[in-house]
């Protein structure tokens, strides 16, 4: 089952600007993303369980203070959780301010809106879980325990 944890204190101003930026580039016709229907949780049939193959962390280097604070806290939570899960896949870190087109493709494909965002993806590119907005180390650990295990 897909679990999405959203921020408890949404930054509406940034979200509106972010969405405008996202939809403006999405409507420009530059890129077509894959079928958003691929975001369902999929089981690894060979092993009978879900396996984590990729972790994508999306943050930004340019935003209002509340968003920057959330992104910094999200980075700390992810870093601490990854230390506890050394066998988890390496994190691909993307900055929305610097890699806007690529980030917008990923966000459109996996349907998320509030920074920071962590996508947990299986080997076939299917979304296993998502954290977005305000999340904590415990939230990341819960997902990594489920999909990556603990050494």
Quick structural summary:
This protein is α/β, with parallel strands linked by helices and about 150 residues long.
Polypeptide structure, described:
The protein has 151 residues and is α/β, with parallel strands linked by helices. It has one domain (4-32, 50-147): Glutaredoxin (3-Layer(aba) Sandwich), CATH 3.40.30. It is 38% helix and 16% strand. It has 4 helices and 5 strands; from the N terminus they run E-H-E-H-E-H-E-E-H. A 5-stranded mixed sheet has the order 1-5-4-2-3, sandwiched between helices. Strand 2 (54-59), helix 2 and strand 3 (91-95) form a beta-alpha-beta unit. Helix 2 (65-84) crosses helix 4 (137-147). The chain is globular and about 40 Å long. It starts with a strand and ends with a helix.
Count of discrete structural domains: 1
- Strand line-up across the major sheet: 1-5-4-2-3
Note the gap between the termini: 24 Å
Give the overall silhouette.
globular
What is the CATH fold-level name? Answer: Glutaredoxin
**Reported CATH architecture:** 3-Layer(aba) Sandwich
Structural class: alpha/beta
Spans where pLDDT lies below 50 across 5 or more residues? 7-20, 22-47
Classify the helix fraction into a percent range.
25-40%
Percent of residues in beta strands? Answer: 15-25%
**Secondary-structure element order, as H and E?**
EHEHEHEEH
**What is the gyration radius calculated from CA atoms?**
15 Å
Number of distinct helices:
4
- Mean pLDDT across every amino acid position: 77
Report the strand count: 5
Please, what is the CATH homologous superfamily? Glutaredoxin
Largest sheet: 5 strands, mixed
Q: Give the class-level CATH name.
A: Alpha Beta
